[in-house]
Amino acid sequence: MTRPSPSRTRFDVTLVARIFVSLLFLVSLAAAVGTVWSGDSDSLTTVAGSLYVTGALAVGVFLDVTDTPRWQAAFFGGMVVFGLAEYAASPDWFDLLLVAAGAAMLVALALDARSG
Fold this sequence. Notes:
Blueprint: H1 6-38, H2 44-62, H3 69-89, H4 93-115
Keywords: Membrane, Transmembrane, Transmembrane helix
Transmembrane segments: 15-37, 43-63, 93-111
């Protein structure tokens, strides 16, 4: 039995990640269109936050920049803002978890930048 070469394995994982992120973004886009068409202005912050987070993820994956501090700050900062907006709309523990995870990653990013 032969193993696939590392470059072939990386290509497959990258392709799967790109397909998954594309589908995730398309679902967010479809939800945004549905919300706008329904005239539900209460959900616009949710839609905007969802589009930002999934859009940032798509840009990071497609441009292969998810390991750069600039992208990480934009993505995790978006998570924090999205989680805070969601928590303000309807207090839920998941939203606080999203805020805590994003904030922890921003702190780790700042400490990493400071030490390096």
